[in-house]
Amino acid sequence: MKGKRMFGGGGMEEREKEGGAELAEGRLRIAVRALAEYACRSGSIEYGFRSSAALAEGTRIHKEVQAAYGEQDERELFLREELEHAGVSWTVEGRCDGLLREGGTETIDEIKSVSRPLADIPGDGWPVHWAQATGYAAIYAEREDRAEMRVQLTYVQKDTGAAVRFARVCSRAELRASLLGLLEAYAPYARMLAEHRRRRDASLAALDFPFGAFRPGQRKLSAAVYRTLETRGGLFAKAPTGIGKTMSVLWPAVRALGEPADGAGGGKGGGAGVSRLFYLTARTTTRAAAEDALRRMEAQGLVLHAVTLTAKEKICPQEEVRCDGAECPFADGYFDRINGAVLDLLGSETLVTRETVERYALKHRVCPFEFSLDAAYAADAVIGDYNYVFDPKVSLKRLLAEQARRSALLVDEAHNLPDRARSMYSAALEKDPFLALQRELKASAPALAAAAKAVNAAFIALRKEMDAGGGGAAGLRPAGGGAFAADEAPAELLAAARGFLEAAAETLAAGGAPAAGVPSGEAPAGAADPAAGDAGPAGRSGEATLRQEARAPADGQQRLLDAYYAAKAFVAAGEWFDERFALVLERQRGSSVKATLQCLDPSALLRQTGRQYGGRVFFSATLSPLPFYMDQLGAEEEDRSLTLPSPFDPAQLEVRVLPLSTRYADRAHTLQPLARALADAALEKGGHWLAFFPSYAYMNAAYGQLLAELGREQGQADARPESGPPDEPGRRDWSGGAPSAAPDGPGRRERDGAALPAAAAGAGGADEPDAPGGERAFPLPDGRELRLQLQRPSMTDEDRDRFLAAYAEPPGEDGPIRLGFAVMGGIFSEGVDLAGDRLTGVAVIGVGLPQLGPERDLLAAYEQRQGRSGFDYAYVYPGIGKVLQAGGRLIRSESDRGTLLLVDDRYAQPRYRRLLPEEWLAAEPR
């Protein structure tokens, strides 16, 4: 039997999966199907297509076959047996599709729906299906004391409804031998889990706080976290930078693992009853902080399986991501080797970082991304991005569904989640790809071409209403910047998109597996296991493959797939569309139009997801103001909040405010005094400095201005940086145009047309010959040097490390003065710990307001309708969060000293001052 990871229609449409495996009180509870899949899986990763409609079709077929059963027959018969074998105590259970009784003969019936022709079924069916069916029969024969059983596989072709049945008569001894064979195959894995659980629980009982003493506030936060998990509630904690919030949250959560809950009270009054932790972050840097905290606990004797998940694009060892056994040696034969690989990994390692996954993946020649998911299924803690839980397009639904109610969510840097969630729940669709498909498929697939034409026609109708200034059937109104908006979903466009999905699914399914490297993981919440392909359900138990965009040839099939997935996401967003959404229409190149179903308020969807879990902790140093973030993150009425003061003496911090306007209209006039102020502050205090700007464009302009000033002072002919290559991501030519937002940046656009000083012209980057993170050095009269560094868009992890390496050692009294230019909300403003003398000063330029635009204005209007301050919710609060995060890089320990320079005249306004931390206000000169 060959295994498949499915990403869309045309495979084996199974019903919702049985539970996987769970170890409790020394007994392993496992589903018959999970047992069969583990023992029988083999073959390669071969991504095929399966639509959501095909999954629903499989459920329908099961019900139709069962409806034809007689009155004497039983449907969905639950079976369970407890036994001892191979040194393991087992509870094997599951529901068989049917128990048929006829003429004194009893038959276990297992139904499988297939999209391939029935004639293509090998022999009398796939071994994994016989293993599952005989497993049910073995349990039934043992329970009812039957000497023999008839076992039947019913395959139904989903397009024609035709069926074929294969039957075997097996003695009780044969059935028992088959079941014990499955247990024998699973036993090494089960023994590993049991031994790990024994060692883990013993280590947890003896685990003390890994530091000698709690910092002020740490004990209070730890107690609040534990109590939250114990009561399966929610906690929103504002824990200031430097308190050690990662350890304060992880330590009590780890202590809660394995403690039995008081079942009647849902955990109240008993143990926390937590079986797994999901530590979710927005950035690699904060994931590393979680790994470091676990490593410290491990040094204290903790034994814990923790797996860090890394995006497929980052961890794939191939030059191009092509997830198919025919093209990738790590996908070829994956299922032949994965059981041994997981056993080796989890039997030898505890903290499984990206590097660990890569090392074992190379050793066993398995796909590291899929390998990490398989390992995570057995882990006590999973560290990864927000999207593994909250993004409906890519979340690990099958991995999480079975244990969500006994799992805890620990959401770090939670101030990032509202904007990320808006992006997750929004979807966009463009006109031109459907026009291209309409023309391309007119002769070869006329039905599909007609469906694409309907989508194109719906766009044309919307474009005509835009040309007329709005006010038509779609209810469009101008939204600024040439965009239009509406409060209602575009009914005609959504209907056309649904029709296109149906037609495209039929075409793609009929065409067989798409080209290698296409998106994967089309398993919606509650749907069947996507690992079940035409060749049999060989995938991991209880797991769903992530939908990952992979590079592939831009051929016709790929264009169809791209359009299919875009339409699918658009239709899904249309299902959620209510007063918390808005339609945004924008003209694109030529005559094209982009329609976006923009999520304005993700709180209800975040709350819906959070309710699936046994406990939720949202924490950050910048959940300020706390009521705003609790509202945005979907807090329940009974959820608790906690605000902790800074653990540090205000005397450690000096705060200066430079009342210089950084508003866009004033930047051309204030650029020179800003550049001089930054240099003066660094030269006065010495040491290492970081200056944070609200955008790349503004940062580049200030950097260019400072280079020009330094060049004039030192008589250099040309100290101005040259523009980078025109195709570099995020590059901006000062002659006009808008920079693209880098993934790690604030995601805003600068307006065109503002005159900037000549010194800033072409200041898109440094002219140093080395890679991003390199520096420019300028000699000073006292013999020291002033060294400048510049953050670039789309910096790799290596570039980031190179940038920070310059701050690794304190500069010393005669050492160089370093001034780094970075972006608020970027990779250097969060999760970067430069304790001690590694960072002397931080400058924050501006109040962090997001760029004005239709989406933000719609958000402001929505919040205003809810009775809240629209401008504060859409602009001020998100902006000040970036300010607090950047300023928080400075004081990281009790011995730190530093200067914080806030550059903006708005810091004197009550609207902004009231949002600043008390310790900042206390450190400001009187």
TrEMBL record:
Gene3D superfamilies: 3.90.320.10, P-loop containing nucleotide triphosphate hydrolases
PROSITE patterns according to UniProt: HELICASE_ATP_BIND_2
Keyword Repeat listed: no
Biased composition (Gly residues): 1-11
Biological process according to GO: DNA repair
Residues covered by region (Disordered): 1-20, 512-553, 713-783
Biased composition regions of type Low complexity, renumbered to the chain: 512-538, 735-745
Keywords of this entry: 4Fe-4S, ATP-binding, DNA damage, DNA repair, DNA-binding, Helicase, Hydrolase, Iron, Iron-sulfur, Isomerase, Metal-binding, Nucleotide-binding
Gene Ontology molecular function terms on file: 4 iron, 4 sulfur cluster binding; ATP binding; DNA binding; DNA helicase activity; hydrolase activity, acting on acid anhydrides, in phosphorus-containing anhydrides; metal ion binding
InterPro entries per record: ATP-dep_Helicase_C, DinG/Rad3-like, Helic_SF1/SF2_ATP-bd_DinG/Rad3, Helicase-like_DEXD_c2, P-loop_NTPase, PDDEXK-like_dom_sf, RAD3-like_helicase_DEAD
Superkingdom field: Bacteria
Domain Helicase ATP-binding: 204-467
Protein family according to the UniProt entry: Belongs to the helicase family. DinG subfamily.
Name of the molecule in the record: DinG family ATP-dependent helicase
Organism this protein belongs to: Paenibacillus pasadenensis
